[in-house]
Design brief:
By secondary structure, the protein is mainly alpha-helical. It is built from four helices and two strands.
């Protein structure tokens, strides 16, 4: 993941979404064992980089770029 400048936790989040696309932010936080605010920051970064479609209070969806990284 170093070649695409992604933190390991962000990659883990993408892999979780690959397995369970449409997860909510709270589900991801529970699965990763982190605070909701931590997940919010990761989601905002991943959305800005084009790896997910993130809309507050809705399910999270991987983009094609996100799927490619998660594979």
């Amino acid at each position: 993941f170093d070649e695409i400048a992604m933190h390991r936790a962000q990659a883990t989040l993408l892999c979780r979404l690959f397995v369970q696309d449409g997860s909510t932010q709270s589900e991801i936080a529970n699965q990763l064992g982190v605070q909701g605010a931590t997940v919010t920051n990761m989601l905002q970064r991943l959305d800005a980089e084009g790896f997910i479609n993130y809309e507050k209070y809705r399910g999270l969806i991987l983009t094609e770029a996100g799927e490619a990284v998660a594979r």
